[in-house]
Structure prediction request, 356 residues.
Amino acid sequence: MALSRLTLTEFRNHVHLTVTPQAPFIALYGANGAGKTNILEAVSMLVPGRGLRRAALSEMAYSGGSGGFSISAELDGTVLGTGIDAAQPERRKVRINSANATINNLAEWISAIWLTPAMDRLFVDGAGARRRFLDRLVLALEPNHARSSSRYEKAVQQRNRILATPGGADPQWLDAIEAQMADGGAAIIEARARMLTALAVQLDAAPAASFPVPDVALVMEGPVTADELRALWRNERRKDAAAGRTLVGPHRADLVVHNRANGQGADRCSTGEQKALMLSLILAHAALVSELRGAPPILLFDEVAAHLDPDRRAALFARLGETGAQVWMTGTEAALFDAIGPDAHLVAVPGDGGGI
Prediction:
């Protein structure tokens, strides 16, 4: 699961840019503002979701350009493409080998996991970000998770709107919506459980010398089967209508992480320990994806190396090399990647909007 070519057209600050990876590590370096993170974001747009910045599509178009953008990548002879047209800036289009496709179809071809500075607060901020992180881990293993999540989210939104209808809603209408929610919700719960169970096995086998080993668990109120979920939502309509939202379900779950060495919750660990726990999770997950899908996910690390001491940086590069993953990394200086050696393709990002 490695890109052999990445081409950006009018994406962020890049008018036209092509990167042709020559080694397992693609080390993008240059001054702040050069557009290194923009390249990682482009790769993250090749999987379902809103990308590593979760930005509006219209914000990704080159300022002063046509108002649209395109991202194209080659992967094992397959050409994946996504982007927007100026006439419909909030409608994302996807093409696979020149044929129209859906966003969810991308998950069948490629998986990617990322770590950015914005995720440094993942363990101390709200549960929503941790759920999104968890679901990206699941999606890398089970492409159908994107469809289940999409159907479930749309059904929850529809139920909330119906419950807010003045004078009450048709019970039969709600029955139908809640049946959709229950089917999608149960699939989400089962997929998350499968991934966490398999991930725990990988974490048990992970070396603890360089990075702390995390213990992970999912916390969710309420039942887990489709029939139980339907019954719960039917009984909770009055309460949910008063609250203005659906109060119980997989959309309210939380990922809880502890440092196995001392049992301390990740939210109470130091910033450095939290970063190390995240890296340990991603490394174990990469090994899991490689085992179950036959190839590791593409890994995107934004400004990670600069925040590690030289020894831990070298340990990270060594562990990443063991995963066999294609790794895209950013940094302000090429020297940050010296410990990678010949496995690194150093790419200078000039920041002038031109090509590389």
